[in-house]
Amino acid sequence: MNKLVGITRNFSSSATQNAIKTVTVIGGGLMGSGIAQVAAQAGQNVVLIDAYPEQLEKAQKSIQGNLTRVAKKQYKDDTGKIESFVKESFGRIQMSTKVEDGVKSDLIVEAIVEKLDVKQELFNKLDQLAPAHTILATNTSSISINEIGAGIKRKDRYGGLHFFNPVPVMRLLEVIKGDHISEETYQAMMAWGKSVGKTCITCKDTPGFVVNRLLGPYSAEALRMYERGDASKEDIDIGMKLGAGYPMGPFELADYTGLDTNKFALQVMYEKTGNPVFKPIPLLDRMVAEGKLGIKSGEGFYKYNKK
Ligand code: CAA
Ligand code: NAD
């Protein structure tokens, strides 16, 4: 593991012309490891932080594996180039279990557990510890970014950077504007998104932002269709892949994203909008209660070999 035994790297004391050159990602799970990877691949120095060392070990393996995929595509059979690409990119990532080790970066992206109070506590701490120029961002998929950042003072240097799973593959980044974000911060976030290879779109702080707000009703209606017995889950998946050109059907996607994540996102959108399309779905509630969360638990709508 690239451990942080005191950072020797030079962190800029102010973001020159607002360009983001150093990035800290907090949360080394599925999303955080992907975000750290794309930033390192783009030549940026990254600090990846997770509260649990075993999560950092997992992140290391997954980042190295995914960097190798990228390198193989780029350099075909040139093993020397593949190895040096992986080594150099991974070498730009430092890892630590302490938030204090990552507070000096130009940008800090939070990708920890989807719980409002835990996120608020982290942002309040970051606001106190980080230098004035540091931009803070959350990768939340369903919580209001204004609520997450309610306790911070630098509201002008705060926003949402919503990536999609799997981060190295999905080309979109939603840049979410909080109520008090400055134009300068917004432009710096858009430019950073581009620098890590993403196409950026902008959205206000609304429930589900753009993509999840539209995926929610689609996913909910698929679940209800299956619950009613209108069609099998296999046929619904085939239908959407072959009839609508989607890369995965709604049940494959729910298993991929996680049924607990799906349930939580629908719940938040129902609470915030009152739109009955987001109403709780008994089948989904039952599966989550039984621990059938999708790929990560080994079973969701389909069965998987647990990693
Ligand atoms: N890291 C790096 N590269 C990866 C990867 C990963 N984790 N997973 C797949 N890839 C690459 C592969 O190397 C392959 O590249 P090439 O085609 O250039 O060789 C390519 O992606 C396709 O992979 P596979 O052939 O293994 O598998 P696939 O064709 O079935 O694609 C998929 C896999 C990219 C996940 C595709 O099924 C897909 O796009 N699914 C939909 C995913 C989606 O909708 N994500 C958004 C979910 S919503 C969200 O994230 C927001 C939220 O808040 C919850
Ligand atoms: P995950 O469970 O894979 O990873 C979360 C990581 O955060 C874990 O490694 C955990 O150890 C760590 N963590 C938790 N609390 C922490 C703390 N206080 N300090 C440091 N580390 C802490 O979750 P994920 O799927 O990567 O999701 C992370 C965030 O990204 C969530 O807000 C989620 O809503 C959002 N998101 C998820 C997806 C998705 O498809 N999974 C897509 C877009 C956005």
Short description:
The protein is built from 11 helices and 8 strands.
Produce the secondary structure layout.
Layout: E1 22-26, H1 30-41, E2 45-49, H2 53-75, H3 79-91, E3 93-96, E4 107-110, H4 116-129, E5 135-138, H5 145-148, E6 158-162, E7 172-177, H6 183-195, E8 199-204, H7 211-228, H8 233-244, H9 250-257, H10 259-273, H11 282-289
Parallel strand pairs: 1-2, 1-4, 2-3, 4-5, 5-6, 7-8
Antiparallel strand pairs: 6-7
Helix pairs in contact: 1-2, 2-3, 7-10
Bound molecules: acetoacetyl-coenzyme A and nicotinamide-adenine-dinucleotide (NAD).
Q: What are the main properties of this structure?
A:
binds nicotinamide-adenine-dinucleotide, Rossmann fold, eight-stranded mixed beta sheet, 2 domains, binds acetoacetyl-coenzyme A, alpha/beta, 307 residues, globular
Describe the protein in words:
- This protein is an alpha/beta fold and 307 residues long.
- The protein has 2 domains: 22-204, NAD(P)-binding Rossmann-like Domain (Rossmann fold), CATH 3.40.50; 211-296, N-(1-d-carboxylethyl)-l-norvaline Dehydrogenase, domain 2, CATH 1.10.1040.10.
- Helix content is 46%, strand content 13%.
- Helix 5 links the parallel strand 5 and strand 6 (158-162).
- Helix 2 packs antiparallel against helix 3 and helix 7 (211-228) crosses helix 10.
- Mean pLDDT is 94; it is low at 5-16.
- Bound molecules: acetoacetyl-coenzyme A and nicotinamide-adenine-dinucleotide (NAD).
- Acetoacetyl-coenzyme A is lined by residues 66, 69, 73, 141, 164-166, 168-170, 212, 247-248, 253, 257, 261.
